Amino acid sequence: MQNIMIVGVGGQGTLLASRILGNVAIQAGYDVKVSEVHGMSQRGGSVVTYVKYGEKVHSPIIDKGEADIILAFEMLEAYRALPFLKKGGKMIVNNQKIDPMPVITGAMEYPENIEGKLKEKVDLTIADALSLALEAGNAKTVNVVLIGIMAKNTNIKYEQWIETIKTTVPEKLLEVNLKAFDLGYNH
To answer: Are 60 and 33 in contact (CB under 8 A)?
Structure first.
């Protein structure tokens, strides 16, 4: 059983990432459950998706201390999700920082040294996924860059990931997304 939590901010492509992950797990022959939790996603709020796959999955929900992998599209969202990571779990984090509304309005400050705090507690991979997405040709492929990084931490074959991206991503965006996946996979 693999419990993967995908966290980010509205508009970052977390839902496409969860579709790719769910589809590849189905293609690999696993039972899959996906649950999407939308915050104020259209206003830059938190978006959380749970993807569970294995021989038999009974519930789509991941409770605190159960996530094998947390795939975080933004630093503060990674920090917020930390209680969900199980002991010995892995966190893959995009180093991007997006100010939430309380920071924008001046009511709060963005927390300092999140990366350092995470490094003290977890097996952490930090990536400049935005730079890799730009190298691929489109800033909106950060999600697929991160999926590429995560793919190496699963037992699903590279070829299955490529085939799933081909059937999940719209044709007009396929080439840039395949490049983004490869840049992440080889990170």
So the answer is: yes
13: Cβ contacts below 8 Å, ≥ 6 apart: 73, 140, 141, 142, 143, 144
What is the residue-averaged pLDDT of the chain?
93
Widest pairwise Cα distance in the chain: 49
The reported pTM is 0.92
- The torsion of the CA quartet 103, 108, 113, 114, rounded to 10 degrees, works out to -70
- Residue 96 — φ and ψ, nearest 5°? -70, 145
Query: Given the structure tokens 């579709």, which residue do they identify?
Result: 19
The per-residue pLDDT for range 101-139, each reduced to its tens digit, is: 888 889 989 989 999 999 999 999 999 999 999 999 999
Give the amino acid at 18. Answer: S
* Phi–psi pair at 74, nearest 5 degrees: -155, 145
Which helix (H) or strand (E) segment holds residue 8: the answer is: strand 2-9
Domains and CATH numbers, the chain: 2-185 (3.40.920.10)
Residues 59, 122: Cα–Cα separation, whole Å: 25
Amino acid code (one letter) for 108: M
